[in-house]
Amino acid sequence: MTFKSGFVAILGRPNVGKSTFLNHVMGQKIAIMSDKAQTTRNKIMGIYTTDKEQIVFIDTPGIHKPKTALGDFMVESAYSTLREVDTVLFMVPADEARGKGDDMIIERLKAAKVPVILVVNKIDKVHPDQLLAQIDDFRQQMDFQEIVPISALQGNNVSRLIDILSDNLEEGFQYFPADQITDHPERFLVSEMIREKVLQLTREEIPHSVAVVIDSMKRDEETGKIHIRATIMVERDSQKGIIIGKKGSMLKKIGSLARRDIELMLGDKIFLETWVKVKKNWRDKKLDLADFGYNRKEY
Ligand SMILES: Nc1nc2c(ncn2[C@@H]2O[C@H](COP(=O)(O)OP(=O)(O)OP(=O)(O)O)[C@@H](O)[C@H]2O)c(=O)[nH]1
Ligand SMILES: [Mg+2]
């Protein structure tokens, strides 16, 4: 039997469910998710391996009109996958009409000459008639290899999409060991899980203004727990106040929710120590961006 493999990028506007899809396929949380736009900021691999194939999914930041250097980094890293993959999953939501953002992406997809599968997500939110109208509209914009409606949240039709990808795979290497699930180190996943809680618990500008840096992560010989020290970066003093909350209540909430997820991921007990620091306008400062993991060298 020959082994098959391939790289598949998941592209689309922010908030359409790309990371939810990746996590569903992997059966665990690799990419953080939230109802805020621009949750994902880096490319993240989800390596799906069976005894006959390896599909390397690349989750990407939602493509939007960037207003900061961080936004530039995010959009560039999303588009950079077009040079790296065998197939693109272009994800659109079933419950929102095609907009300028989608048209912009479609133009880039046409120019890239990579096979594109249209994935219409969130079918649980619409009546079948609306879904058909959505499919019809997108079908007229470009040639898709396939069109697959799914619900990443509930899992409907996800296995059919995997089957289609499998059928299209070519003979190839197993690029990564069977037990490797992503390309990022644990530290990255830990920082992301803390950021996810901030995104889920705050509103407006705050989700966009936060970065999380892991200062240290090592086992405490006395308690046996992994001691993690993390700093939550914000852009203004007022944001620092909100993240800390009344008598530290918000920071405590962020910490305890994050701890649960991190322990689940590491399969180990942790002690999480969080700090909050102001870095004025870090989203437009090249050095800060690099320090916080948004480095151009990474794509
Ligand atoms: N009802 C419904 N909601 C969904 C589905 N898939 C994702 N969502 C929700 O949509 C929101 C965005 O999901 P994400 O997976 O973070 O979206 P994303 O495309 O990765 O977003 P960015 O990282 O910002 O580009 C979350 O609140 C999800 O729970 C779905 O199939 N049905
Ligand atoms: Mg995402």
Automatic annotation (TrEMBL):
Residues 38-42 are annotated as: G2. Residues 150-152 are annotated as: G5. GO terms for molecular function: GTP binding; GTPase activity; ribosomal small subunit binding; small ribosomal subunit rRNA binding. It is a peripheral membrane protein. Its main location: cytoplasm. It is found in: Cytoplasm; Cell membrane. Keywords: Cell membrane, Cytoplasm, GTP-binding, Membrane, Nucleotide-binding, Ribosome biogenesis, RNA-binding, rRNA-binding. Residues 59-62 are annotated as: G3. Monomer. This is GTPase Era.
